[in-house]
Structure formats: C-alpha cells, structure tokens
Automatic annotation (TrEMBL):
SUPFAM superfamilies: HPr-like (SSF55594). InterPro entries: HPr-like, HPr-like_sf. Gene3D superfamilies: HPr-like. Residues 11-71 form the HPr domain. It comes from Paenibacillus aurantius. It holds the Pfam family PTS-HPr. It comes from the Bacteria. This is HPr family phosphocarrier protein.
Length: 82
C-alpha cells in the first residue's frame, strides 16, 4: 500500500472521529466502523464501490465532511440517505 493510501486512511479515520454519529462503510457484505483505522486498512485495500451509512446527532455535517475527504483522495463513495 502506498504512502498516499496510508494518508487517505488516516485522514478518513481522523475526520470520522470528529463526529458523534455512527459512520459505517459498507463494501460488498462487510460493514466497517470508519472510526477504526484497522478496519479501514483491511477494507480499503481493494478498489470498488463503497456505501457510507451515517446515523446520529451530527449526521448531516458528518456526511458532508466524509464525502469531501473521500473525494480529496479520489475515492468513490455513495453516501446513503435514509
């Protein structure tokens, strides 16, 4: 894994940890807590379609921030709105 990938994972986790909301990344049949850096390292090794589920008191702000950090690192993510 490249240093830029490592930097993306660290920034994604750090951004998620700023929020009280639950932030979960879905890849195929796996669900990973985005606040867990270890979970991200094992999940973001492959390219693919990711869905982001955000629930909690600051969900709207979290969705915006998470979308921005994924886009910054050229990673596609579909933010699920329910």
């Amino acid at each position: 894994m490249s240093n830029s990938s490592n930097a993306a994972i660290v920034e994604i986790s750090q951004t998620a940890n700023k929020f009280r909301s639950s932030i979960v990344l879905q890849y195929e049949n796996k669900y990973i807590d985005v606040k867990s850096i270890l979970g991200l390292f094992t999940t973001l090794l492959t390219s693919g379609q990711y869905n982001l589920h955000v629930h909690g008191p600051d969900a709207e702000e979290a969705k915006t921030a998470m979308s921005e950090v994924f886009a910054k690192h050229n990673m596609a993510v579909n933010v699920i709105t329910d």
